[in-house]
Amino acid sequence: MNSDSEKSDYLLLFRGADWHRDLSPDELQKTMTVWMAWFNRLVGEAAARAASRSRPSRRSFPAR
Amino acid sequence: MNSPTGKSEYLLLFRGTDWHGGLSPEEIQKVMIAWMEWSDRLVAEGRSKARRSLEGGGKFVSGKERKVFDGPFAEAKETVAGYFLLEVDDLDEAVSIARDCPTLAYGATVEVRPMPSRCLASELAVAKIEDVARRMAGRSAPADAAGRLPRELTAK
């Protein structure tokens, strides 16, 4: 574990610059849309985790 | 130009995990000291925004079946050992920095890749369909498929 959040960091390297060669423009755009949905979900999940970690813990105090 | 400062971003990928094969521990440490001085200077100058080394191992995911293999899936000399994220004026400056890499003299290589200001996928996901093929037509693998620097740049 090596990040401030006590998680581990990994680098994803995406290999291949010609994967789209046999795809139609429609298919290509559909793939890009799926890609962005995947990526945005990961970003959203990371933001949600960060938010939940930074949220102050609930504490109850006796009424005065 | 693709950063808030008006500079361009480039990724230096350091390839080669066996460059130290013929060196003594003292020689390896000397190279590492030179590396850290070089790296720290780039950070101090504001030209390196991020730097990380990569551990060996990991996994390689491939194909429609999404098979998982032990990785990295490359020979030691091709394996990415780390990266710098540079913020510099242009490709020439990025290459000039790459040429100063201390491990080049021992067989490691540095791949210099420009980073676009905007994510291609996000643009294509919403582009007019007639623009999608046109945008992708110009995209292909680097001239040298392995992405290596020309040999004359790897020899000091």
Spell out the blueprint of helices and strands:
The complex is a heterodimer of chains A (64) and B (156).
Chain A: H1 25-54
Chain B: E1 8-15, H1 25-44, E2 48-53, E3 59-62, E4 67-70, E5 80-88, H2 91-99, E6 109-115, H3 120-126, H4 129-137, H5 151-154
Antiparallel strand pairs in B: 1-5, 1-6, 2-5, 3-4
Explain the overall architecture:
The complex is a heterodimer of chains A (64) and B (156). Chain A has 64 residues and is an all-alpha fold. Chain A contains 1 helix and no strands. Chain B has 156 residues and is α+β, with helices and mostly antiparallel strands. Chain B has helices at 25-44, 91-99, 120-126, 129-137, 151-154; strands at residues 8-15, 48-53, 59-62, 67-70, 80-88, 109-115. Chain B has a 4-stranded antiparallel β-sheet with strand order 2-5-1-6. Chain B is flat and about 60 Å long. The two termini of chain B are 30 Å apart. Chains A and B meet through helix 1 of A and helix 3 and helix 4 of B.
State the gist of this model.
The complex is a heterodimer of chains A (64) and B (156). Chain A contains 1 helix and no strands.
Mean pLDDT of chain A: 79
Mean pLDDT of chain B: 85
- Beta content of chain A comes to under 5%
Distance between the termini of chain B: 30 Å
The tally of helices of chain A reads 1
Q: Could you state the order of secondary-structure elements of chain A as H and E? A: H
| Multimeric state | heterodimer
Distance between the termini of chain A: 44 Å
Biggest sheet overview of chain A:
none
Structural class designation of chain B: alpha+beta
User: Percent helix among the residues of chain B?
Assistant: 25-40%
The major sheet of chain B is characterized as: 4 strands, antiparallel
Query: How many H/I helices of chain B?
Result: 5
- Widest sheet of chain B: strand order? 2-5-1-6
Q: What fraction, in percent, of the residue positions of chain A are helical?
A: 40-55%
Instruction: Give the overall shape of chain A.
Output: elongated
Computed CA radius of gyration of chain A, to the nearest angstrom: 20 Å
